[in-house]
Amino acid sequence: MSVRVTWNQLKLFEAVARHSSFTRAAEELHVVQPTVSAQVKQLSETLGLPLFEQLGKKIYLTEVGQELLKTCRELSDTWSRFEMTLSSMKGLKQGRLSVSIVNTAKYFIPRLLGTFCQHFPDIEVVLHVLNRDQVVERLSQNLDDLYIMAVPPEHIAIEKHMLLANPLVPIAPPNHELARRRKIPLTRFIEERMVLREPGSGTRIAVERFFEKKKLLPKVRMELGNNEAIKWAVSGGLGVSVLSEHSLMHDDLRNKISVLDVEGFPLHGNWYIVYPEGKQLSILARTFFDYLLDEASIIQDDLAPQLVRMRRGR
């Protein structure tokens, strides 16, 4: 039996299956929701069996839907291998590179991407700037070529390679009592109300692990989903915080925030390049991977003097 389906129908179906939502699939693919529903319905009718079943407000894959999702991912992997071969045959002059990064990495990855694109102007680059949970979700589904994060997941089989140092520092407004002190005991710092990143973020995980190791419990006053909001909250006197030093560079708020001299800080972490274990990187992804590692030392050397000046300004 010959079944006639289109690539677009499969792409729409895969997005709906991944999100368990027609609306979110439509938003991701920049189409209206009725189009997604109509195309998936037509695909189901072509196959002669339902792909989803609805229980209450949630949708679930049927058995044939699960099999089709496996097929879609196999087709995607096959197409990626073809693109890899094609890029090799074209001498890396063209291609598509998809990279997902956590929010804080936006302070240095775009700079690296910009230089890379100058070398390869015909390459299409798609950059997803997301929170850590969203990046981990994309990683688990192998949706991108590479991923950049500070705290790689432990429940997924991955390859990880250290890219840059990622020091985390305590911050407060310049008029805060602790901003004028040196060698602040950690027990004194922990007395302050804190404004922290949302649970699940790499920074939050690192901070919580540090305090747990010291058997201390921070007084969390507020949780915010991005670094900019936290910096504004701190500068406005809502509390102290701990952020990546990368997030304090090239910032209009630098004069409204002080890095504190607290016992045990900075917390020494790293940025990692991550991808699923066993994944065969395309020629383009491998070239960008090697480029990141080559440029990392340059970026680190460039950041070092700024970090020193920032800490001396305490």
Question: How does this model look, in words?
Answer:
The chain is of the alpha/beta class and 314 residues long. It has 3 domains: 7-72, Orthogonal Bundle (Arc Repressor Mutant, subunit A); 78-163 and 271-305, 3-Layer(aba) Sandwich (D-Maltodextrin-Binding Protein, domain 2); 164-269, D-Maltodextrin-Binding Protein, domain 2, CATH 3.40.190. 44% of the residues lie in helices and 22% in strands. It has 10 helices and 11 strands. It has helices at 7-19, 22-29, 33-47, 63-89, 109-119, 132-140, 186-189, 202-213, 227-235, 283-312; strands at residues 52-55, 58-61, 95-102, 123-130, 146-149, 158-172, 193-197, 219-224, 241-244, 258-259, 267-276. Strands 3, 4, 5, 6, 9, 10 and 11 form a 7-stranded mixed sheet that branches. The protein has a two-stranded antiparallel ribbon with strand order 1-2. Helix 5 links the parallel strand 3 and strand 4 (123-130). The longest helix has 30 residues, at 283-312. It is globular, with a radius of gyration of 23 Å. The termini are far apart. The mean pLDDT is 87.
